[in-house]
Amino acid sequence: GEKCRSFIDLAPASEKGVLWLSVVSEVLYIMLLVVGFSLMCLELFHSSSVIDGLKLNAFAAVFTVLSGLLGMVAHMMYTQVFQVTVSLGPEDWRPHSWDYGWSFCLAWGSFTCCMAASVTTLNSYTKTVIEFRHKRKIFEQGFREEQNFLDQEAIKYFRERAEEERAEAGDLRLQCLHSCSPN
């Protein structure tokens, strides 16, 4: 004597658009998670350099953040539709008592994990990029200072050498003048 009815049929007409939007958002959530996971795997197996690996990791983190946010919004929309359906739906369908249950806890757990992983990865990426830039700046400054030091040393050496050559040339002229003079 029981009728099997779809939840879509039970939801009020005003909420069906939100229900479909939540379903589409959940599908996008899963797709973004798969893209993020694929980027992490790509970074793990095909990273040619540290910087390329960090970039792939950062993109994976961005996709994971978007995924987590979209999944949470989708789950909240679905929960809203469910609450409206419980309060306005058919009498014979309404549960006498209900709880959020495992799916709600799973959604919050998923959201928390996505956000924690993404924020940690983006922080790691930012920290590493800043460290690389700082080390490169220090290296370039050291190289310039070393180059300037070498240039100054070279200039000083060549000046002294030129002065010595001029002095020797002058001595040779004096010797030549003394030895060549008819006294």
From TrEMBL:
Membrane association type: Multi-pass membrane protein
Chief site of localization: membrane
Pfam families: PMP22_Claudin
Xref: InterPro entries: PMP-22/EMP/MP20-like, PMP22/EMP/MP20/Claudin
UniProt keyword terms in alphabetical order: Membrane, Transmembrane, Transmembrane helix
Record's signal peptide: none
The keyword Transport appears for this protein: no
TM region(s), chain numbering: 27-46, 58-80, 100-126
Localization (cell): Membrane
Domain of life per record: Eukaryota
Keyword Chaperone: no
One GO term describing the cellular component: postsynaptic density membrane
Name this protein carries in UniProt: GSG1L protein
Phylogenetic classification of the source organism: Eukaryota, Metazoa, Chordata, Craniata, Vertebrata
Gene from which the chain derives: Gsg1l_1
